[in-house]
Amino acid sequence: MNCPRCVQRIHRAAESCPHCGFSIADADAQFGIDPVQIRCLTDSAGILRRRDRQSVEAAMEKITRRFPQIFVALYTGSLGDAANIRPFSFWLLNRAVYEDAPSGMANDAGILVTIDPESKAATMVFGYLLDPFLCTQDIFECLSRAHPYWLDGRYADGFLKALNHLEVILRKKFKKARRDSKPQNPKPLAPHPAEDLGKGVRALDQTIAEPPTTEEATS
Amino acid sequence: MKFLAHFTTALAVISVTLLAASPTPASANPSPAESPPPSGEIVRPFIPIPEKFIPAYFGKRPESYLIDPQKLLSPSDFRDRLAFLNYHASDSAIDLFVFVIGADQEIPAGVKLDEIIGRFFSNGRPAVIVFYYPNSVQRSTLLLSPSIANTIPQTEQRRILESAVMQANRKSNVSEQTEQFLVQVSIRIYWMEQMISGKSAKNDKVPHANLNPALSKSAAKAAGFAKLQEVVMQLMIPAAAAFVTLVIIALLVAWRRLTARHFFPVHQVETRLGGNHAAGVGAVITFASTKVPPASQREQVSDFSRRF
């Protein structure tokens, strides 16, 4: 798990980044505290043509049709600095109110793609629903598929490629999740070596703290 | 007209029957004059083929499949019949030679057909030699080259001629009669080939002893092809059924995949960094330059680190 600002590893339940202190409050201070009402496809940068918008919306709906718990959102806009894109996406997925999102679906189920055509950067983030199933590498693979198209300025084509690969990955992850959720006879886990090491260290500490008596020493 | 046609057919059948009843209808030296004339018919003596045409008929091995030195057939008929005989020769392993003789003529007694056939038709492809009399089809005779003469029984040879005469007599026009006659002989030659190749050996009991090697080879090839065709026809329906079943299954699987809906199990996840819906987990890619491929961006680092 990485911090959106410093990309350093953070604990699973960290309230703020232990390295840079980043939290949603910092993002709120930077981008605004009030919820923003937008549509799932928001092309603030104006990089999509009318025909592109139709195909993009169709691809987004397709994902929702295949995976009814999930929706996809695309935001394009100029953020000024490439460094802003990661915290911005984090902030947007938490603060946005998607007016055309499927009813009863919270942003936990969202996958947000943000494209900044000015700083030539794009990011993909997902909500807590997919947290146990997807990892950074999966998302990066999707963005890699779009990379050659985005280099040419074909943003819609790149986005469609990314979504196609995302669907493949989601299907794989779904199969794995279904397989893992089947009742099995789990083997008892072997104790983690670190735990043994900890026990040993604690025992050593205890020994140092309480030196053996003379009787114990002689026996 | 209908009555006339029936009458003609009946006459032809009677003629053929009489011909079949003759002791050696397809013998080496047929003498049609020997057969008794039908009752009521005026008996006219046959005249021998004029001497000047004898060399053209019997002087050498025919260079054409249609021998008509007297020009008894009209030019267009001659051309059409010759074209048909050439086609037959290209399609069949047994050639068909037709000698056209006048209705009131006969082969001179001095001509030994046995000897002529033996001399001219012993070598080369097997052949069926027909002496055809326009306007008097029932007098036609049929001989076989030595290579197949012993293979085809006399009864079968007689049957070939009878059926050809019968077909010819169904037509009133000489040209059509000739055409029908030759077509029927050609068809019967095909069956003769089949018989030689052994396909109908069970029914006809034709010996294969004197089979010409060239004929045997082509006949075996034809039989092999026919067998293959039969096997293919037999397998066609099950194969088509299996193919259709597979296509249906593939379509069903594809349809199921396309319409399948996937629901992920919902896990309780602790919120992080104060985000109620997401923790900002994801990836960033830059596409500012072709010199920075995705492979070099796989390791996600902060923008600060990337700059330095």
Task: Note down, in words, how this protein is organized.
The complex is a heterodimer of chains A (219) and B (308). Helices cover 46% and strands 13% of the residues of chain A. Chain A is an alpha/beta fold and 219 residues long. Chain A has a domain at 35-181: Diaminopimelate Epimerase, Chain A, domain 1. The longest helix of chain A has 27 residues, at 155-181. Chain A starts with 23 loop residues before the first helix and ends with a helix. Chain B is of the alpha/beta class and 308 residues long. Chain B has a domain at 2-204: Diaminopimelate Epimerase, Chain A, domain 1. Chain B is 49% helix and 9% strand. Chain B is built from 10 helices and 7 strands. In chain B, the strands form 2 sheets. Chain B has a 4-stranded mixed sheet. Chain B has a two-stranded parallel sheet with strand order 1-4. Residues 1-5, 7-37 and 199-211 of chain B have low confidence and may be disordered. Strand 6 (121-126) of chain A pairs antiparallel with strand 7 (282-286) of chain B.
Mean pLDDT of chain B: 79
Radius of gyration of chain A: 24 Å
Class from helix and strand fractions of chain A: alpha/beta
Biggest sheet: strand arrangement of chain B: 2-3-5-6
Strand content of chain B: 5-15%
How many DSSP E strands of chain A? Answer: 6
Alpha-carbon Rg of chain B, integer: 39 Å
Quantity of strands of chain B, as a count: 7
Do you know the CATH topology of the domain at 35-181 in chain A?
A: Diaminopimelate Epimerase, Chain A, domain 1
Report the CATH architecture of the domain at 35-181 in chain A: Roll
